[in-house]
Amino acid sequence: MAKSAEEVHPVKSFGWAARDHSGILSPFSFSRRATGAEDVRFKVLYCGICHTDLHRIKNDWGGSNYPLLPGHEVVGVVTEVGSKVQKFKIGDKVGVGCLVGACHSCDNCANDLENYCPKRVPTYNGTYHDGTTTYGGYSDHMVTNEHFVVRIPENIPLDAAAPLLCAGITTYSPLIYFELGKPGMHVGVVGLGGLGHVGVKFAKALGAKVTLISTSPNKKKEAIEHLGADSFLVSQDSDQMQAAMGTMDGILDTVSAVHPLLPLIGLLKSHGKLIMLGAPDKPLELPVFPLLMGRKLVAGSFTGGLKEAQEMIDFAAKHNITADIEVIPMDYVNTAMERLTKSDVKYRFVIDVANTLKAI
Ligand code: NAP
Ligand code: ZN
Ligand code: ZN
User: Fold this and answer.
1) 0.85 exceeded by the pTM?
2) Ligand 1 pocket, residues with Cβ under 6 angstroms
3) FRET pair for 18, CA 20 to 30 Å: which of 198, 227, 274, 295?
4) Which domains does the chain have, with CATH numbers?
5) pLDDT of residue 3
6) Which superkingdom, per the lineage (predicted)?
């Protein structure tokens, strides 16, 4: 006989969810599954607010199912482990990023690229293997198969580590794969937000020269003096952009909205690579001639696999890379979303879930 919802998901949980595409979040009660043999249950301590959360609660891309409980930059402390769990024990500091499931049998899974598995299960707004909806980290606790859990190194502050689970791996992975994160490379990072600011830090730590390309002239001083960028271009300043034409080996484009690609392609050297990371809600215009004339490449990249996520966070701990964060209480989340819409955050909101999420 089929199991009832209570049997499949007997453990009460609560968090904040959006109920419709207004995107307004409010307290929400639900339940999570019992700890399976390979599961790790953890109390959520902090959760970053990724711009994807904002796209999703507003249904920018279509496909949002409500109630939608976001959060895929989650860190916490393990409270229970299943009988077959090998990597974690109670009390360990752990993180969960964008994925909580995959098929484990396709070519991508075989190559530690669960992020490109056609059957990957997103951390929220997804359907888990048991047919139930996945709910993210704006909640009191989570239960996740240990394969999708990352160990947070001891020396890294948990609140500032949370954004590495998405923003960190999303920028680190293409720097490695496209061979841009190394000495001798000149990398452009477009958009100084959550992804952009950790992208600068990783590219620098990997040895590249980094230029920030931004719509916000007021971010220049900090980008250079604090984040370590070597130079800064204001994308609307045509003189500055003209002077930098043909100088970059690659660009990470983290812009969340529709924007012109022609000036960015112009910044690339011949054979340069424009890597799209941002996910605007409408298609961008792709000018072809400037690609042909320099054998240039436009590509995309989506988060990273679990092996690489662990590698990334270990690298971050070794090089003292964390996110620059504004820690907020749970009930500030709707204001935070409004501010994120206006790029008014330096550079990632992180919700102090454990101390501010009130039980319903
Ligand atoms: P964010 O913190 O809001 O940063 C985006 C930055 O883009 C802003 O700070 C701003 O930087 C720039 N920007 C915003 N609107 C712009 C416009 N109209 N024209 C030009 N520049 C603009 O967002 P995020 O969390 O970094 O996420 C960025 C995008 O990446 C989102 O679309 C998100 O869904 C996507 N994402 C993709 C992946 C993936 O796996 N590929 C993972 C996570 C997120 P300046 O002020 O410096 O111009
Ligand atoms: Zn994200
Ligand atoms: Zn697979």
Assistant:
1) yes
2) 50-52, 55, 166, 170, 191-196, 214-216, 219, 254-257, 259, 277-279, 301-303, 340, 343
3) 198
4) 5-166+325-356 (3.90.180.10), 167-300 (3.40.50.720)
5) 62
6) Eukaryota
